[in-house]
Amino acid sequence: MKLERLFSPVEIGGFHIKNRIVMAPMGANYENIDGSVSEVLINYFEARAKGGAGLIISPFTMVSEDQRAATLGIFSDRFIPGLNRLCKRLQYYGARFLLQIAHPGGKVMRAFTGKTPLAPSSIYSPIYWERPGELSRDEIEELIEQFVQAALRAREAEFDGVEVHGAHTYLIGQFISPHTNKRKDEYGGTFERRMKFPFQIVKGVKEACGEDFIIGFKLSAHEQLKGGVDEKLAVRIARHMENVGVHYIHAAATSSIPGLLRVESDFPSDPSIYSPPGVLVQLAEKIKKAVSIPVIATGGITDPDFAERILEENRADLVAIGRALIADPEWPVRAKAGLAIKYCIKCNICHKRLWNKKCVKCTVNPAVGEEQRFEVKKKISKKRVVIVGAGPAGMETALMAAQRGHEVILYEEKDKVGGKMVLGSIPPFKPEMGKLLEYYETSVVKSNIDVKLEQKIASVDEISAENPEVIILAVGADLIVPELPGVDGDNVLTVLQLFENETPDIGRDVVVIGAGLVGCETSWYLSTLGKSIKLIDILSMEELLQDEHPTNRLTLLRNMEKAGVNILERRKAKRISEEGVIVEKAEGGEEFLNAENVILATGFQPKAELRDAILKAFPEAEVFQIGDCRETGKLYEAIHEGYHTAWQI
Q: How far apart (Å, rounded) are the C-alpha atoms in residues 479 and 605?
C-alpha cells in the first residue's frame, strides 16, 4: 500500500508537521532522579526523531514540585537548559516537539511524596491508592498558575508547544470527570464548572505564550468508571476545548486502577497483543466528526498500512505510534521505504517495567535506552561463527553478528527459520507475532548469513567441519511430557505436535492439560475452530498467568471465556484413557472429563544432549548457549540473550 496520507504534511496551530506520525507520550524512567533531562533520555528521543517521526510529545512532565511523581519536571527554571538541549537535538531532524504538562492529582502515591495526595474532591475511587484531600480554591488557582509557568518554561526551552494532559484521570481529568469531581463551588457540578479548570489553564497559556505556540489537549474519551466520561460526553469536552482555543485533540481512554489491576473494558488504555487493531480509534473518529481541529488517534497502532487506512477513511488526522517506536525507532523511515519493520508485539513488558519502578525495556529491541552503547560498528577482527538453531535467539544473534562484520553460518533442522515463533504466530488473534516473524525471515534472507535449512546437526564432527572460531547453541527446548498412565495413547498430542498442522486433525471434545500462557492461547485458538475445550490446571483462577502484564492477562482470560473455554481450576490429571481424562480435584475426589483428544501444554525443558556434547568437545573454544537450550524463558529472554551474545563476539 502506498502511504501517501501517512507521509503527507499537516498544519497544527500554524506549524508545519512533515508527516502524520506522532510519537506518543510515554514514560520511560530515563530522566535523572530529580526530574531533569539525562543523556540517556536525549539519546532515546534522538533515535526516534532520526527515525522520522513528524511530531514528538514528551512523557508526563510535572508542573508542581509539591506533589511530584517520578517523572520529568518543569516546575523550575533549572530544567530549562537540559530541556533545551533535548529540543534542539530532536528539532535538528525536522521533528516538532511538544512538552506534555501534567499533574497526577489524587493518583500520586504517598510513597513518592510523603504527603496526602490532593484532588478536586475527597472521595474514595478505584483510581486512587488512598482517599485524597480536597483542593481549596487558593490551591486550585496556584495549580493553574503552575501550569501556565510550566508552559512559559517550555517556550523558553524552545519547544514548539505543549500538550495539556487531561487524560487518564490525572488532575485535569479528575476535574472534568463526573466520577471524580463532586465539588459544589465554581469548579464542580455543571459541565461548564467542571471545565473551568482546564479552561483557565489553556486561557492562561495562550495569554502568556502567544499565538505562535501549539497547545494540544489530551483527554480520555472513555473512562471505565461508574459515572465517568463516556463517548457522548467526550465529544462535548472536545468541542468545548476547541472553543477555548486548543489546536488539536488527542483521544485516549482510562481503564486502569491502582496496583496495576485492570477492569474489563472495550477500550483498554494499554491495548495488548490480544486486543483488536486500533481498538481506541473509534473514540478519535467520533470526536473528529464533531470538531474542525486536527484529531490524533492512538491505542496500539503498529502497522503502517493500518495507520494509512485510518487516515484515508478520515477517522483521524494523525496517528500516535507509541510502543511500536520503542520496538523500532526507524518505524517511519522503514515504512516509507518499504523496508522490514521490527514489529511491537504489544506484550506490554515496557509498561510492566515502568510501573515496577524500572526503566523501560523492550522484548524485541534490546538496545532501547542504550542507543549510544549499542551503536553498530564493524568489528576489526572478523570471526567465523556457527550458530545451531534458527529460533528467535539464533536469528537475533545471527543478524547482529553479521551486522558487526562476522562470517555467520546458521543451521536449522526445519525447512524454515523461526523455531517456536512459527507455531506461536498461527493463532489469528496474534497478528503482530506473525509480522515479527516476517521481519526476521526477510532480514535473514537479505543478510549475508549462510543459512543451512533442513540440516540437523547430529554430531560434534559436523560442527568441527566448519572450522568455527565461535559456536553458539540455540537449539531450543522440548515439551515436558508428564508421567501419566495413558499419556502415550494415540489420542494424546503435545502442543508442538498440534501446531505442526495449521488445521489440527482432532476431535470436537478436547481436554488441554496446563493453563500457562501456551495452554491458554491454545485453548482459545481451538475454540475458534469450533472445538469444545476443557482446560485444567492445578492452580486457582487467581493464580493463573500472574507473571503476565495485567491487561494482557485480563484480555486473554476474557476472550477465552467469550469463546467458551471451560477453565477447570485446581485439578490435577491422574490418568488418560481413550475416552478422556481422570482428574483429581483439590477438595478431594476424582472427576472424569470426556475427550476425543488430549493436548499437553505442560511446560518445556532445555534440549541438553547435543548442547552438552558440544560443550565437552570444545573446551577451549568460544562457545555460548542461549535461549531455551540454556534456560527456558519467554521471547524477551531469547531475543535479549541473542543480541547481547553477538556483542560479546
A: 6
The residue assigned the cell 537548559 is 81
Identify the CA nearest to 73 among candidates 142, 146, 23, 138: 146
From edge to edge, which strands make up the β-sheet containing 509-513?
A: 492-494, 597-600, 509-513, 532-536, 566-568
Cα 538 from Cα 545, distance rounded (Å): 13
Looking at 25-39, 499-513, 514-528, 591-605, which range is the least confident one?
499-513
Q: Are strands 61-62 and 72-73 parallel, antiparallel or unpaired?
A: parallel
Quickly count: other Cβ atoms within 10 Å of residue 481's Cβ: 14
Buried b (16+ CB within 10 A) or exposed e, 548-571: bbbbbbbbbbebbeebebebebbb
pLDDT classification of 476: cutoffs 50, 70, 90: very high
Cβ neighbours around 75 below 10 Å, total: 20
DSSP-assigned beta bridge partners for residue 166? 219
**Beta carbons of 324 and 527 less than 8 angstroms apart:** no
Residue 525 designated active-site: no
* Dihedral sign (CA 352, 357, 362, 366): negative
Report d(CA 556, CA 558) in Å as an integer. Answer: 5
Torsion sign across C-alpha atoms 523, 306, 327, 39: negative
* 275-to-68, 108, 269, 353, 588 alpha-carbon distances in Å: 32, 28, 11, 20, 38
Residue pair 167/252 in contact (Cβ under 8 Å)? The answer is yes
Q: And the C-alpha cell for 474? A: 540455540
377 φ/ψ angles, rounded to the nearest 5 degrees: -135, 150
CA distance 419 to 207: 59
Instruction: Write out pLDDT tens, residues 312-361.
Output: 999 999 999 999 999 999 999 999 999 999 999 999 999 999 888 899 99
* Residue 402 to residue 637: CA distance in whole angstroms: 20
Residue of 170, 187, 248, 411 with catalytic role = 170
Q: Compute the average pLDDT of residues 609-613.
A: 78
- DSSP letter string, 141-210: HHHHHHHHHHHHHHHHTT-SEEEEEE-TTSHHHHHH-TTT----STTSSSHHHHTHHHHHHHHHHHHHH-
Residue pointed to by grid coordinates 498558575: 145
Share of the chain above pLDDT 90, in %: 86
Helix (H), strand (E) counts: the chain: 22, 31
**CB of 37 closer than 8 Å to CB of 22:** no
Contacts (Cβ under 8 Å, ≥6 apart) of 504: 498, 526, 529
Q: Nearest-CA neighbor of 595 among 506, 480, 523? A: 506
Owner of C-alpha cell 526445519: 414
User: Is this prediction's pTM over 0.90?
Assistant: yes
Q: How far apart are CA 127 and CA 337, in angstroms?
A: 43
N-term to C-term CA, the chain: 40
Question: What domains, with CATH codes, occur in the chain?
Answer: 10-355 (3.20.20.70), 384-477+605-648 (3.40.50.720), 492-602 (3.50.50.60)
pLDDT at residue 380 in the model: 72
Query: What pLDDT does 258 receive?
Result: 55
Residue 585, beta-bridge partner list: 571
CB 318 within 8 A of CB 9: no
